[in-house]
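Re: Re: token formats

Sure, here are both.
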Amino acid sequence: MRRALLAVLLLLTAACAPSDEPADGPDVLRVLAGSEIKDLEPLLKRAEQEAGVRVKLTYTGTLDGAEQVASGRADSRQDATWFSSNRYLSLIDGSQAKLSTQTKIMISPVVLGMKRAKAAELGWDGKAVSWADIAAAAKDGRFSFGMTNPASSNSGFSALVGVAAALSDADDALSAEQVGSVTPRLKEFFSAQRLTAGSSGWLADAYARDARVDGMVNYESVLLGLREPLTLVYPSDGVVTADYPLTLLTSAPENKKALYDKLAAWLRTPAVQQKIMTDTHRRPIVPGVGPAPEFGSAQLIELPFPNRRSTADELIATYLNQVRVPPQTTFVLDVSGSMAGGRIDALRQALIALTGADTSASGAFSRFSNREAVTMVPFNDAATTPVPFTVPEGDPGPVLADIKRFAEGLTAGGGTAIYDSLRAAYDRPAEAGHYSSIVLMTDGENTHGADYSAFEAHYRSLPEERRRTPTFVVLFGESDAEEMRAVAQLTGGAVFDARSTSLSGVFKEIRGYQ
């Protein structure tokens, strides 16, 4: 039974495993991609035989990827990018000099999918519905929805831009002043949000597990691919559409430019466009390939996008610090003897980065946000007394400094009581009106207290509301990968592997899910 469970978990976390593909080669095109492209991996395997191109995908978040390209960090490591949109990237100073040919591959608008019964109850299954109508129903508590974090996922960013543009009645690109004026209405809209996530695919999985959530703002392609058919609402005042531009970097060598041309041309052939549409529910972009009936007949009106990076960043910051339902985050942190030396230093730095020490855009948006409830639970032989912090809505600096001092004071020693400590985190009362999540970081196996089976039994005995709290597990050092994956699967969380990468980078990635 345990072996079967492990096999399932390994499949679920395959994206975290190192690839056996070569890092480079004369027939390899290295592509920095958004996680939304993962569903194209089976199709891309055909490109080697049919186009003579092996595609090496490296996944990253929207903002982090944009910074890698604009700063030049991607120049020697990647030949091309493939994000769902280049809109944010194009706003960064100097980015245009890094980008060469851009080839749009497919289309998917960001829309609202609702359970059919709820859509019928709201009267949204047969008439034109605007974002203002949706916002009014959200304000009145008539439905709930999930959406990805706009600081880490393009679907969430596109949704935020679309809602803000529509509710502000902007005729042109959204301005910083309009962001300020529309904030109260955005807060009403997002009061109905019950799920968040760092990627569109993980959000879809979380939505499928949570029967209390009525709908989801996501790519049309994701919504059409769900097992439970939804009513798709295409707001009459417009949407923001992903066009998935495969983009050559100007730094790419000449032989890689030829590979890019081959891959781009192959992806736009009628047969491949048809395959993309059939397998991933994205609309074809080649005129000769007709859209499938599943896309309906609603006209897609494109809403204006910010034309300044400062406005886009202000919109994301407003969402994180003023508008969204605030998070309740508990860090269960291994400070046993095996963490001494470089490992405890890495943990300190990872936490300090979340207090604002990471000044990159992605770092700024991953810091502990205003209104967030943060609890630290260091453990060794047993869980220590939880240390709570609440970041205020105004002037967060002093509390962030307190968290930084706490992180700097962490020391290593003793054994490893993983499951007693995780149980203590689940037994803490939830903050009303908050998203709740747990981060578990350990570098070894359990040596003290209850084992995994005892924790599982306790978890299953908890009230349903407490069981909705996911645990995001960080693999580090010699942690028991099998049991850690089991914890993530049990609690509806995810596994993040820091054994061969930066612990700070993994902590920052997890923030997209909180």
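Second one below.
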Amino acid sequence: MKEYIQNLLTDIVSGLKNEKLLPENTQIRIMVENTKDKAHGDYASNIAMMLARPMQKKPQEIALLLTSRIPLNDRISRVEIAGPGFINFFASKEFLENQVNSLLKDPLLGVKPARTPETVVIDYSSPNVAKEMAVHHIRSTVIGDAVARILEFLGNRVIRANHIGDWGTQFGMLIACLEKKEQEHASSLELADLEAFYREAKKHYDEDPEFAEKARGYVVKLQSGDEYCRSMWQKLVKITMDQNQDIYRRLNISLSEKDVMGESLYNPMLKPLVDDLINRGLAREDQGAIVVYLNTFKDKEGNPRGVIVRKSDGGYLYTTTDIACAKYRWEHFGAKRIIVFADSRQHEHLLMAWDIARMAGYLPDDVLTEHGSFGMMLGKDGKPFKTRTGGTVKLKELLDEAENRARELMSDRNDGLSPEEKNSVVHAVAMGAVKYADLSKNRTTDYIFDWDNMLTFDGNTAPYLQYAYSRIRSIFRKTSAAPGAIKITAPEEENLLLKFIKFSEVVNGAAEKAMPHLLCAYLYELAGLFMKFYESCPVLKSDVPEDVRQSRLAIAECAARILKTGLGLLGIETLERM
């Protein structure tokens, strides 16, 4: 509908130019927005204000001229002028009915797929080897996964890249510690507590000179491809990723083992890359280090900022790896869009790496690079979320706590579910609550982690949306009547239908901006509109005419399908019964 109105206004503006009422060189962006108040129509445009200067007329006078040229048809029932010259558009009931009747026959629920499907590489989650996933990993993991699902739904080819920290000097001490534990425990080795293992390795390294010397030797051997060290390193990676995959499965995250693209993948590329930068005059030596100077970034004196790509000791930096990442993602996958979900503190670092990649021609100008930045996860005290003792909260422990709290929340519900069904409900509610609490916030801001707010059936929460869906499904368990053609008989129906047809716009907006909270807000508003419809428009009462019943069942069916699809795009499970 927005696109239709924009095209309509574009044609009218062209007509004004042809009639010399508007200078031919006038360039304006025609904006059509959703209104917040139904009294102001369904859509509105400020085009009259935009044309005031070039036409040298008052906005209201221009608005009158424009509205006189807008034909009323089966899409637009009326047009009004408001305030200083806003033009408000009211969608016709017939149009809404036709749109939603068609939407119900469409597997994509009216969502327009990408005009030109692209290959998108999404870098997210990115835990470190030999460390357990902690709460600070959850934002990258759930936001990145939701965006991957949304882009895929729109027909894009999505490459998931789990850029794990699986390389570096620390692996010498980790290999030496793993060897020591294997010798002590033979084949019964289990690294259930990776954090304790890492601390033990560091303690040996700091306190035992012989261990430290062996560890340093193992670093050299690993980096030179020694078979023994490589096999031990692979064991560490496997132990870690097996535990991480358990977390991903539990949270319904679509990452798998094949999506792992760790730092080790890019390590062989770093020397040739730096040599290439030197040979082409883009990098030069400065006090033993190899540096690229960027005109796009300035120091305090206004001079180009230097970015080290190889240290004076021959070591490489994260920047070098990220340049190689960008190069690989273009050359290997043909990426047209690269999104990296990392916290906001990484912003300048990523921009510098991408600038160097573009300078070197490793990334064409038409490849879009985006930092999907996000804020911190805070406790109620406004400080980074920690345990009571000030330690890092392990993600597994947080999910355990979520399930315990969800079980309490569901304990007094007389739902007739079997113990197995109740366990499934508890799991879905708990995981949905944790994910939605994050996804429903604008990712660029910090957010307060609050158990009480996320695990409730009131407000903008996953349990509220899951319950709304199951409540709709319960309607169909009580009747054998089938949905029929939709005919609007009440304002609550009209409001709901108008919301249905905006699903495509919201999904596409969330994909374009990599902002899942836009979809969350839509689903919450949709559920609220459905509850108002359900309270005001009886569906199964005996005095409801059959054609009205079938229409309202179709409206309920559409609401359920959009809720299920929308929550699915967020990676949140819906439940037939709660």
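The first helix runs from residue 2 to 18. The chain has a mean pLDDT of 93.
- S.
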